[in-house]
Amino acid sequence: MVKYYKRNGAMKLLTISSGFLGLMYCFWGILGMHFTYNSLLNLFTQIFDLDGYLGYILGMFIAALTLLVAFKPGDPLPWHWLLLLMFSILLMTFVHVIAGFPIFVAGIIGLFSVV
């Protein structure tokens, strides 16, 4: 079942941009182009001296699921504002805060614009 929102186009655009940003940051992280603040997971890997590649692979999986929700709503995962907020928290944790922010905005838009 697919939910329809008043601002469905804007929500999809923000979700797709968030998924592509997540994939981009994960690819850059695997290639070694680190930023000053990667993610919340990077803080834990630095404290416990763990390798961060597992976090990047998990982040790529979450970003791919985000794109799948945007491109095929209702087929593998539902198109719902609560799921978008959960993906925003996961992207902020495993990828980068900038990658999770657009989908967070999309979830808030979906929360206030249910048809």
Could you please describe the fold and organization of this structure?
By secondary structure, the chain is mostly helical. It has one domain (8-112). Helices cover 70% and strands 0% of the residues. It contains five helices and no strands. The protein has helices spanning 8-31, 40-47, 53-71, 81-94, 97-112. Helix 3 packs antiparallel against helix 4 (81-94) and helix 4 packs antiparallel against helix 5 (97-112). The chain is elongated. The chain starts with 7 loop residues before the first helix and ends with a helix. The chain crosses the membrane at residues 12-33, 53-71, 83-112. Keywords: Membrane, Transmembrane, Transmembrane helix.
Nutshell version of this structure?
This protein has 115 residues and is an all-alpha fold. The protein contains 5 helices and no strands. It has one domain.
H/E series, N to C?
HHHHH
Strand content: under 5%
Number of domains: 1
**Could you tell me the number of beta strands?**
0
How many DSSP helices?
5
Report the helical percentage.
over 70%
Question: Structural class of the secondary elements?
Answer: mainly alpha
Extract low-pLDDT stretches.
Answer: none
From the spread of the alpha carbons, the general shape counts as elongated
Oligomer: single chain
What is the residue-averaged pLDDT?
83
Cα distance spanning the termini? 14 Å
What's the main sheet like?
A: none
Rg, rounded, reads 14 Å
